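Progress narrative, work stream C.
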Amino acid sequence: MKTVKYPFYVALFVLSVLGCKKKTIAPVPPDSLTATAVSTTQVNLSWTDHSTNETGFKIERKTGSGSYAIVATVGTDVTSFSDVGLISSTAYTYRVYSYNQGGISMSYSNEASATTFSPVPVPPASLTATAISTTQVNLSWIDHSTNETGFKIERKTGPGSYAIVATVGTDITSFSDAGLISNTTYTYRVYSYNQGGSSASYSNEASATTFDPIAIGLKTGLIAYYPFSSNTNDESGNENNGIINGSNFIKDRFGHSDSALNFNSPNQYIRTKKVIQNVSNTFTIGFWVKPEVNDIVKNEGVTGYEGYGNQSVIHPSHGSNWGNSSLNAGVGINVGTNQIQIIEHTHLFISSPLVYATTLTGWHHVVLVYNSHIPYLYLDGQLVRTGLKSNIQDVRPSNGFDNMYTSSGFGRSFSPNGTPVGQFSGSLDEIYIWSRALTQLEIQYLATH
């Protein structure tokens, strides 16, 4: 066989090819890096992988304006990472690069920053709810937090379930809840919130009942109101306050202490400062009463001198308080366990245009309406008797004052000859007087509240 001899340079080439290895190329860098805080201690990262030959990705982080340091390494084709165990309310910035055996990517991804959430805020406190109309309740609370995004207000109606009705911003400590239903009880609670979540608890609960339109209407024409809440002041705004003479404060019909008056011995009465002027022939007088003894039965009529009786809840002021005593008459009311009678007092007459026989024990609501000289008596919200039309020119509501008989008023009359008569025995509460005739619906409301 013929031996073929190769030149030296050919042999060298073959050895060179057989002995070399292919060099690995460094990967392409990632991009579109995003950083999203999801809690007080965690930031989530995401990026786009443009490489086909990476071994993985290195994630670097810096705090604020500090220096970068590697915080994690993830594998091939991984494009997200959750950085946990961070500090709340802290800004972190990230960058990512890819790597393999050939080295690292020629550049980093873009930078991306996120700030971890603040701690959940402290709950508000001292919530109050105040009804200001038939359709609105105003809320107020104290903000004890320094990092809230805002406040969420929840409401329930009666015993119902809570639902969010409003959200208000940072540092706001009040809210007006409008468009409500009249005469309805609403209960509220408030909590604070921020990105970290909601406060660990709610504020206290606070309730309010929107105004009843009837109750609001009852303020119209109210010229005297004596609730007897530990005093004898006139709460109508006219300040015709009473002076107490011997009567004692007791529990009212609801059991509230010092909220009614008891008359149980002679010379006990309440005297006010002045008579009510400019009201005649049409008006309303009402009160709560608990008589203890019978009244003297008088004949019903519009003339004559029947006298005061002996259970004078409201002394009938003499007509001279308004000028001509023959043309004016003060109206009083007697209530005994046996009857209710209305008394008109002029210079010439002490007559009873309405006498209603009944049996009364315990507390009762009495309303007298004069409408164009005619008296109408309501007992516990119901019309029980219509009296005789007065023949006096001007019939006036008495209100605990008489310029002729100074030892008289609510709870006691005084006779022209100086003899005390008409001392009421029993309990009395909430005297009110209007310059108009109340409707039956209004009277029924008073009798049930």
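Work stream C, second folded protein:
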Amino acid sequence: MAVYPVIFKTDIQHLDRKLQNESLSRLARSAVQESAKQLGVTVSKFHKTPEGQPMAENGIFWSLSHKKSFVIGVACDQRVGIDCEELKPRSEGLLKAIAVPEEHPLFRQRNISVVELFSAKEAVLKAYGSGIKDLRNCRLIAEKGAWLVFEFAENTSLVQQTQIEDHVFSIACSNEMQITWMQQLAP
């Protein structure tokens, strides 16, 4: 199975804060729809549970994320989570807040930044409908080629990442699949 995370670069800095948020939300949903189109399916309703978790539509799961400069969306036939974070220096205190000591050797060996680890964990948590309160319960346990392997709630998730400019993008899924990152012009 292939999956197509779609990334749009945004140009919304000139808008007021309320319009920025509305624009980012609309663009992220458009990215999900473009990802679904690549699979030959549609996602149009964007329903969520009362807790805010995206609900699958006709067996198609979806996830989205946005920052001021980028939005990303994905559709997939299995649980999926996506995240986007700006790569900027963070304190060691963030590492202590999001990772347990058993993760540190692999984290350091892999030479990933705290922001990349945060983004990977956030993608896993989104795939399972959880929130950042569970960052320390989502554990980096291995790497497998281009994939980081995490355990969360007795499930194993695989995360792949890419970087564009000063942002990292992470996708989490339960099985290895062909990831085709698609950067496009925003509609």
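The chain has four helices and eleven strands. No further action is required on this item.
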